[in-house]
């Protein structure tokens, strides 16, 4: 799957408006990282908050080795800082989650049209007359699994349907991938790459100007530079890939030793 494109889903977690502001920061970081890597970045869903934060967003990222580089970014990202909304200068802890879904090829996954329920509705949010008069938003339900995908970013119902199908394919394919990963995982594997939404993977500590990835116990300074989505983020991702390769090698060696013993 390393050569696959991907769908990235971001959602605000614990922390109210501050969590939404942090989610917007992380969304911008990945959009800038895609530009840094010369990948395409297409927004499929984007639901902002009232003060400039982000409640939930979905984006499609395509380019050479996109999934290979971003597959370890899934999980809980935590921020520790004084929120813009805090008047007494207290440090708050907030979270947001990232899910990385590999985009399947036509060979990887086929969906029977009979298994789909497609609904249309008027788009919500800003948009003037267009929002009020056209049912351009599309919601697709995969009946056997209950998996839902929506899109309302485009004025065209047809384009929204195409984008919603892209998200649905990724979600269904991800279910298959997670099942395979679960069966393959050994007890010594550190869970890098399982894209667990409940796993805290990284902390952005503003008072200490430090970003720490808890899976590899690596910290870097200059948070603002890290959030630019350029060299510092790229170096962290390379470290994660190297550590994951090491863990995979150890797993193979361990499996071979067990085979010899039996």
Largest sheet: 8 strands, mixed
Tell me the strand percentage band. Answer: 25-35%
Total beta strands: 11
Count of discrete structural domains = 1
- Major sheet: order of its strands? 2-3-1-5-4-9-10-11
Mean pLDDT: 84
**Unreliable spans:** 126-132, 186-196
**What integer value in Å does the Rg equal?**
20 Å
Shape annotation: globular
Ends apart, CA distance between termini: 32 Å
Which architecture would the CATH scheme give at its second level? 2-Layer Sandwich
Secondary-structure element order, as H and E? EHEEHEEEHEEHEEEHH
CATH topology: Alpha-Beta Plaits
Specify the helix fraction band.
25-40%
Q: Helical stretch count? A: 6
Q: What is the C-level CATH assignment?
A: Alpha Beta
Secondary structural class: alpha+beta
Structure description:
There is one protein chain. This protein has 262 residues and is an alpha+beta fold. The protein has a single domain, classed as Alpha-Beta Plaits (2-Layer Sandwich), CATH 3.30.70. Helix content is 36%, strand content 28%. It has six helices and eleven strands. The chain has helices at residues 16-36, 66-70, 129-133, 157-184, 223-226, 231-261; strands at 6-12, 40-48, 54-62, 75-81, 92-102, 116-121, 137-142, 147-151, 200-205, 210-213, 218-221. The strands form two sheets. Strands 2-3-1-5-4-9-10-11 form an eight-stranded mixed beta sheet. Strands 6-7-8 form a three-stranded antiparallel beta sheet. Strand 7 (137-142) and strand 8 (147-151) form a beta hairpin. The longest helix has 31 residues, at 231-261. It is globular and about 50 Å long. The two termini are 32 Å apart. Mean pLDDT is 84; it is low at 126-132 and 186-196.
